[in-house]
Amino acid sequence: MANIGFVRSFLGGLPEDQRRSFVSLFEYLIPNLRIGLPGHLKRAENMQWIQVNSTTHATANTELPIRHGLGVAPHVAFPALDLTTANNSLPVITTTRPADANYVYVKSASTGVPFVLFVEAR
């Protein structure tokens, strides 16, 4: 978690009224950033991420296209471990080609393993 004192140190040179406004903004944002509860193709609560749930292919190292629903190519994906149920895991996945406006493309040596990604486009 970011420290508000660290943020204040960067705002010290601003005029007092601007500094107060920015400090108030960061005091709200820092403790309130959250992804939210899990759900396939669900947007994060207050971040520009969409959750995609999938299962690794039944054949090891076979490309798996995963529809993401962003409408533009995402630039980054973050794996996540769903802690609301038992027996979830984070399989090692590798991109097989660049993502496009509809899909991310991955493969894994693990077979039939459910996983969760959060994808983000800029």
Quantity of strands, as a count: 6
Q: How is the largest sheet built, in terms of strand order? A: 1-6-3
- Count up the domains: 2
Oligomer state equals single chain
Distance between the termini: 23 Å
Find the structural class using helix and strand composition: alpha+beta
Q: List low-pLDDT spans.
A: none
Largest beta sheet, briefly?
Answer: 3 strands, antiparallel
Fraction of helical residues: 10-25%
Radius of gyration: 19 Å
H/E topology pattern = HHEEEEEE
Could you explain the architecture of this structure?
Helix content is 20%, strand content 26%. The protein is an alpha+beta fold and 122 residues long. It folds into 2 domains: 1-33, no CATH class; 49-120. The strands form 2 sheets. It has a 3-stranded antiparallel sheet, with no helix packed on it. It has a 3-stranded antiparallel sheet with strand order 2-5-4, with no helix packed on it.
Task: Describe the structure concisely for a colleague.
This protein is α+β, with helices and mostly antiparallel strands and about 120 residues long. Helices cover about 20% and strands about 25% of the residues. The chain has two domains: about 1-35, no CATH class; about 50-120.
Keywords for this structure?
alpha+beta; 2 domains; 2 helices; 20% helix; 26% strand
SSE topology sketch:
Elements (H helix, E strand, L loop, with lengths): L3 H8 L4 H17 L16 E7 L8 E4 L8 E5 L13 E4 L5 E5 L6 E7 L2
Antiparallel strand pairs: 1-6, 2-5, 3-6, 4-5
Helix pairs in contact: 1-2
